[in-house]
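The methods section describes the discrete structure representation at length, but only in general terms. What matters is that the chain and its backbone geometry are given together, residue for residue. For illustration, here is how one protein appears when written out as sequence plus structure tokens:
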Amino acid sequence: MTPHRVMVPVWAELLDTSGEVIELAPLKVVVRYRADDPYAVGLDFEVGSDVWVCWLLARDLLAAGLALTPRSENEVGDGDVVIRPDRDLPWRVWIELSSPSGTGCYAFKRDTLAEILATTEALVPRGSESGRIDWDHEIAVLGGEAA
């Protein structure tokens, strides 16, 4: 049977810039993907004992960020999510997440995210996402009538 979701626990590092100390602290993250929500990749961050903060970002944005040349000054995204390669370490990629309560900058292993992205693309190839959405259901949720 073909799986309909991907859930991969990974480790990220949080850039702590409080005061003058800048250090990377390990952070447990679950990267998730569902075939019935094919445009989004979830990042679930453990911020306390059984306390999680969940972010959704566009799968295409993640792909574009991973496609950037390592050690370049380029970045993708604007607004709440920005992805950029590390300037010094080619194996690392940064994902910056901003909300009204603050901004977090997280370092991930590029190869790990690339493998997860490849798994999502094997599940739902890029360009075929719209065929996986139950549009009648989505219209009904919005309060309209399905055609």
Summary: The beta strands are 5-16, 23-34, 40-48, 51-58, 81-85, 92-99, 102-109.
